[in-house]
Design a protein that fits this description.
The protein is of the alpha+beta class. Helix content is 29%, strand content 26%.
C-alpha cells in the first residue's frame, strides 16, 4: 500500500523524474500516479511473496534468456505515469537492455503487483494503474496474499481470478512458463493438505 507524499500542486512527469532522482530521495521507492507521488512502504510479507514470484520466473529465464526481470526498485514509464511493480519482465526483442537509471522508458510486458494489505484507496489507485498498463499492452498479475488469489489482467481480455488450486500461464510473454498459485503461497498448501 503506497502512501501519498505531501504536495499541494499537481506535478508533471518531468518534475517527478527530477524529484525521484534527487539525492534525498535515492533510497525511496516512489510512484507517480495521475499527477500524485506515492511512496511504496516497506512490507516484509509482500516482499516475500514478490520474491517468490521473481525467483520462479528467474529460474525459467535462466534456461530461456528471452528478456529482463526486475524487482520493485526497477521503475517503468507507463502511459505517462511512473510505476514500481513488485516484479516486472520485458522481452529482449522489445528492449535489448533496461535503463541504467531513472524509470525504464519501455513499459514491461508483464507486471506483478502484490496488493497487501488492501484498502479502498489502494484499490482505486490500482484501478488507475491497470487501465494505464492495459493501454501500454502490459499484462498484470495482481497477487492478493490475504485471499491467496491472483487476478490476471491481459490487454483486451476480461480479468480472470486464479485461486489457490489454479495455475498461472506465461502465454506469449513467457512461452511454456506455468506457475502454480500454491508455489506462491506454499504455507497455504500446508494448511489445506489432508492429514496423513
Amino acid at each position: 500500500m503506497a502512501a501519498a507524499v505531501e504536495r499541494v500542486q499537481p506535478m508533471t512527469a518531468e518534475e517527478f523524474d527530477r524529484f525521484a532522482l534527487a539525492d534525498e530521495n535515492s533510497e525511496r521507492i516512489l510512484e507517480f500516479i495521475d499527477g500524485e507521488i506515492f511512496e511504496v512502504p516497506s512490507n516484509p510479507y509482500a516482499s516475500k511473496v514478490s520474491m517468490r514470484v521473481g525467483i520462479l520466473i528467474g529460474v525459467y529465464l535462466l534456461k530461456q534468456p528471452i528478456g529482463h526481470l526486475t524487482g520493485e526498485a526497477g521503475g517503468y514509464r507507463v502511459s505517462g505515469d511512473r510505476y514500481a511493480p513488485d516484479v516486472a519482465f520485458v522481452r529482449r526483442e522489445k528492449q535489448d537492455e533496461v535503463a541504467m537509471e531513472g524509470h525504464n522508458p519501455v513499459p514491461p510486458d508483464l507486471a506483478v503487483e502484490v496488493e497487501f494489505p488492501t484498502s479502498i484507496r489502494s484499490q482505486r489507485r490500482l484501478e488507475k494503474k491497470l487501465a494505464r498498463y492495459a493501454a501500454d499492452g502490459t499484462t498484470v498479475w495482481v497477487v492478493y496474499p490475504e485471499t491467496r488469489e491472483v487476478e490476471v489482467h491481459a490487454p483486451n481480455q476480461p480479468a480472470q481470478i486464479v485461486g489457490i488450486d489454479g495455475t498461472l500461464n506465461g502465454g506469449d510473454i513467457l512461452p511454456g512458463f506455468t506457475l502454480a498459485v500454491t508455489d506462491i503461497f506454499p504455507e497455504a498448501a500446508d494448511l489445506t493438505a489432508p492429514d496423513a
